[in-house]
Specification:
This protein is of the alpha+beta class. The chain contains 2 helices and 10 strands; from the N terminus they run ααββββββββββ. The strands form 2 sheets. Strands 1-2-3-6-7-8 form a 6-stranded antiparallel β-sheet, with no helix packed on it. The longest helix has 30 residues. It is globular. It comes from Polaribacter marinaquae.
Length: 195
Amino acid sequence: MKKLVIVLVLITTIFSCKNETKKTDNYEHKNHPTKSVKENIPKKKVLSPHQSTMAMVGDAHIHMDYSSPGVRGRIIFGGLVGYDNVWQAGAHNATWIETNEDLLINNEVLPKGKYGFFTIPSKGDWTVMINKNWDQHGKDEYDENDDVIRFKVTPKISEDIQEHLEYKVSKTSENSGTINMKWEKVNVEFPFTIN
């Protein structure tokens, strides 16, 4: 009988210790969470980061939104971006422009609103199109019939490389400004006035 009691006490003690160990393990895991594997993986660099530019010209707030690809040693115009083809003037979604006042561009009125911004690069003059359809991937849904304004501009060519596509809206007077696009060796700029 004494032996039976000793065996029962030993068995109870052993099971009790195992349960305490499990409770301790669970307690430590709940109060000291381990890092997930994803946290240890370095973030991948975005190759065409989202950018925007804006300016106040008089009462007009002009805003442009685009994705900014890099040159990364490539030939851009006449290579990655083919000549004489519609280009969404950025990466991913179409570049867009928004104004809260009517603008006068190339002697044509751009009514206040939000528009897609497209170009047709070429070896000579470029065509710039401001289009009703601003919300589209690339140029997938581009339709020339939706152009509100379409005009030619002569690009300036530089020997210096602009690594990432960059837009600037600049105020030049109380009621006028310029819109400028630079990438690779190309600089495209045109003026506007508040209508």
